[in-house]
Specification:
By secondary structure, the protein is of the alpha+beta class. It has 29 helices and 24 strands.
């Protein structure tokens, strides 16, 4: 035996005496001494003393609980690590057996989690795509789009388009700017390759007319040729790879000839790579701006262009904006410019897509609102699915109480029990994420079609696996944490004696989770109803004009020659199915043109009057059924009308004219009389208020022919119109759309949001009801004998269903009360983006609550009735 003269380090004993309370010291110190003398003969004095000291120091760790100290545990008797592969494998085996043993509840958990994960993953892919706009551009942090602010009557108005001369002034005067460009977005011009080597393909392609600095600002990769040099030459054009492959064999387009719009010939000077869908720049060709420029485009009062700048590496947006404040005073004599009330501003290019709405001169939202909304919806769905898991796990805790008691008695620590339950949660999450990926793969084609996206699941994409791992970790920890902590806290003495009473804590927690679930679900139901009502309001609101049965035919090619548009209009009027016809420059449902060059008698010389403007032909007001409050419409047999103007009520109010007919104004066509006063009608989407509008007589500026069809003659009249247009313009394909369709496109974003909310709202309700079904099924299973006794004593099916249902219905009613103000706040904030909107009536929330109660009652009743109809003999025979 080793002599007892050798003792452990005295300082260690001294420290231990001060760390432990007297009632623990004897047991722990005795155990440590016993281990020390045993190790003395095995590993020597020095190492035994070191081990003893280290064991004592381990008690400085605050994680040592009293129960652990009482057991005398030390470093020498350490429990197996939770990360030990053997332990992990054991946890997984136990988890798998439990899943197989309880198939119904496992299925509810896995399927519910899979649905929540699939929806979250879909939304995550969509959000990531939305936020990645323009990220492909080099030096994105130095690229900005230029707008300008105008202070009027104490309010700052932001114009997103700019005048033609602004780009040259910025390039010349602003030292922080490295390069600048302006572009005119020209959709769908006819493209025809001129070459004998292949068939004469023709098609319509969207493109830009841009100044020579375009490829200095946007350094897009070239596949062939030099884009900068090509754009600097008015006789050359730059095209994309897709356009080259479409119109030239093998995509070899460099040096080939192209004709735009049956007019100007270009030589292909460069080919660039295709632009990704996540780009606010969308074009197939770029041509020199000088080939397109007109004299009116050089005026400071007209704002039809987009201006972009690239800043120098050391420059900031704030410095550049400060330098630009002097541009308008330097180049205009406007009073607003001299007083500093009109000035350019910059918006980072990476924010343009998401932050398109301005209020009081600063970006306040846009598509970013929908990104935030759906990020929250994704979290809601995941939370609802996790709540199902937690509810069922805690509800079934009594069934696992004995298992936990036995494990604790044979030495299992609480940490190992927590590890076991967390591992079960992770196994469920892994199975769910596998099912979720399959559901996403199935749903993606439909999702991409509905929302005009090109989202894919790329197995080689690290971001995808990062999201998947994140989902597994989040759902595993979120859904498994509370059950693990709760179940591991059960006392073994009570569980093994059968005297375990769970108390009110777990029950209250489950009730709280059910309330949270149905609060979220009811909020989504409210959102579904309000979104649907607002969309219906947008589609059915009286715009102040008649857009029904109006066909829109783009005017192009030969029809654009002087006098041809009016000739086609007159011929169209002779068709039996045509009620009326008119030419316009912009569609009346979305008049984007504007100008500040408006003057009238008595106007303050320094006042800048921003008004909407358009060119229209004869009988425009008559054809669109816009009410004339005074005066008359443009007429073809009155040559003097070419100098006249039509104004709306808002324009008359701006000019302070109570009777504007006959008053002279100076505008697009120069000085001319006001010949008609129109009742205000909506010029754009209902997001915007009605603005002052002045219409000038169309004399070669028409872009569209509007045809009002007679009821019941749509198909034969369209055939006759196609024949008429092909005769007047044989080289162009006949294209048309209905004005109602064009108006609906103004709300494509809102329609997508409505579809998403409806789809995910239904899924949220389904997942909630899935969990509710599981809880009711478990409760019915636990109360089988009680139900049997009640039936023997004469209880009716109705009373038994009420017994099982009433507690859940109370929780759902509480959820409705909580959800109503939350939903009101969220939807009221969304509706604020519309200048014209529905009211939030009380009955919407009552209807949402009624739907939530009805759906929940249907779910509960299915299982309750099944339990109530069970033969009591079967449930009582064991008694």
């Amino acid at each position: 035996m080793t002599p007892r003269l050798v003792e452990p380090p005295r300082w260690a004993d001294w420290l231990l005496e001060r760390l432990l309370s007297p009632h623990l010291l004897e047991d722990v110190q005795g155990d440590l001494h016993e281990v020390f003398y045993k190790q003395l003969g095995e590993i020597g004095l020095a190492r035994a003393r070191w081990a003893y000291s280290w064991a004592v120091l381990s008690y400085l760790n605050p994680s040592h609980s009293t129960s652990k100290l009482r057991s005398g545990a030390s470093a020498a008797y350490s429990s197996p690590s939770l990360l030990n592969p053997t332990m992990i494998l054991n946890y997984v085996k136990i988890a798998w057996r439990n899943l197989l043993r309880h198939k119904l509840y496992s299925g509810i958990n896995i399927f519910g989690l899979a649905l929540g994960m699939a929806c979250s993953l879909l939304i995550g892919l969509w959000v990531n795509d939305e936020r990645s706009s323009n990220h492909f551009l080099p030096d994105l942090d130095r690229l900005y789009v230029v707008h300008y602010n105008l202070v009027r009557e104490g309010e700052i108005l932001t114009n997103l388009t700019t005048p033609g001369p602004l780009q040259e002034a910025i390039q010349k005067d602003i030292p922080q700017v490295e390069s600048a460009t302006k572009i005119a977005d020209w959709p769908n011009l006819l493209v025809k390759p001129i070459t004998p080597k292949q068939d004469q393909k023709t098609g319509k392609e969207q493109g830009y007319y841009a100044t020579s600095g375009f490829f200095d600002v946007f350094r897009l990769p070239a596949l062939a040729g030099n884009p900068k040099a090509a754009l600097a030459d008015p006789g050359q054009i730059v095209i994309t790879r897709r356009m080259a492959e479409k119109y030239f064999a093998g995509g070899s387009a460099l040096g080939e000839q192209l004709q735009l719009n049956n007019d100007k010939m270009y030589r292909v000077g460069a080919v660039i790579d295709d632009l990704p869908t996540a780009s606010t720049l969308q074009f197939e060709w770029v041509a020199n701006f000088s080939a397109f420029e007109k004299e009116w485009m050089k005026a400071w009062g007209d704002n039809p262009f987009q201006t972009y700048v690239r800043l120098k590496p050391a420059s900031t947006a704030a410095q550049t904006e400060a330098s630009m404040k002097g541009i308008y005073p330097r180049y205009t004599d406007w009073k607003s410019a001299k007083e500093g009330r009109i000035f350019p501003i910059l918006q980072p290019l990476n924010e343009v897509y998401l932050y398109g709405n301005y209020q009081n001169g600063v970006p306040v939202g846009g598509r970013i609102e929908y990104v935030r909304i759906f990020s929250i919806v994704a979290l809601f769905l995941l939370l609802i699915a996790c709540i199902n898991f937690m509810n069922l796990a805690t509800a079934r805790s009594a069934l696992r109480a004995r298992e936990i008691g036995v494990r604790k008695v044979i030495g299992a620590l609480r940490s190992s029990l927590i590890g076991q339950f967390i591992s079960e949660s992770f196994v469920t999450s892994l199975l769910a994420v596998g099912l979720a990926l399959s559901l996403v793969w199935i749903a993606l084609p439909l999702f991409n079609t509905e929302f005009n996206k090109q989202l894919t699941l790329q197995p080689t994409d690290p971001a995808l696996w990062l999201i998947v791992v994140g989902l597994v970790l989040l759902t595993g920890l979120l859904s498994g944490s509370y059950p693990a902590v709760f179940l591991s806290s059960l006392q073994p003495a009570k569980t093994l004696k059968g005297t375990l009473r769970l108390g009110t804590g777990p029950v209250l927690f489950r009730r709280a989770l059910v309330i949270v679930q149905f609060t979220l679900s009811t909020s989504l139901i409210v959102g579904m109803i309000i979104l649907g009502r607002q969309m219906q309001y947008l589609q059915t609101k009286n715009l102040g004009m008649d857009r029904e049965n109006v066909v829109v035919i783009p005017l192009e090619g030969e029809i654009l020659k002087p006098g041809r548009a009016e000739l086609v209009r007159q011929r169209a009027l002779r068709l039996s199915g045509v009620a009326s016809a008119a030419t316009v420059n912009h569609l009346p449902t979305n008049i984007q043109g504007g100008s500040g060059d408006l003057n009238w008698p008595g106007k303050d010389p320094g006042q800048k009057a921003e008004v909407s403007a358009d060119f229209v032909g004869p009988d425009f007001a008559k054809m669109m059924n816009i009410k004339l409050l005074a005066g008359r419409d443009f007429q073809v047999n009155r040559p003097a009308d070419s100098a006249g103007y039509l104004v709306n009520e808002s324009a008359a109010k701006l000019m302070r004219m109570t009777n504007p007919i006959g008053k002279e104004i100076d505008f697009l066509r120069g000085k001319g009389p006001i010949i008609g006063l129109l009742q205000d009608f909506h010029l754009q989407s209902l997001h915007q208020k009605i603005t002052p509008l002045i219409l000038a007589f169309d004399d070669g500026n028409a872009s569209y022919l509007l045809i009002k069809l007679k009821a019941g003659q749509t198909s034969p009249t369209l055939t006759s119109l196609e024949r008429l247009i092909k005769q007047a313009n044989p080289t162009y394909p006949f294209t048309y759309l209905f004005l109602d369709e064009a108006y609906g496109r103004l709300y494509s974003r809102e329609q997508q949001v409505t579809t998403l909310i409806n789809s995910f709202g239904v899924l949220a309700i389904f997942i909630s009801c899935l969990g509710l079904f599981g809880l009711v099924a478990f409760m019915a299973e636990q109360r089988t004998k009680e139900i049997g006794i009640r039936k023997v004593l004469g209880a009716s099916v109705t009373s038994l269903v009420t017994l099982l249902s009433k507690d859940f219905l109370k929780l759902i009613l509480i959820a409705i009360v909580i959800a109503s103000p939350i939903a009101w706040y969220a939807m009221n904030r969304w509706l604020q983006s519309f200048a014209y909107r529905i009211d939030l009536d009380w009955w919407v929330f009552a209807l949402a609550g009624l739907l939530a109660v009805s759906i929940a009652l249907l779910t509960i009743s299915f299982q309750s009735v099944k339990a109530a109809l069970m033969n009591p003999v079967k449930s009582l025979r064991s008694e």
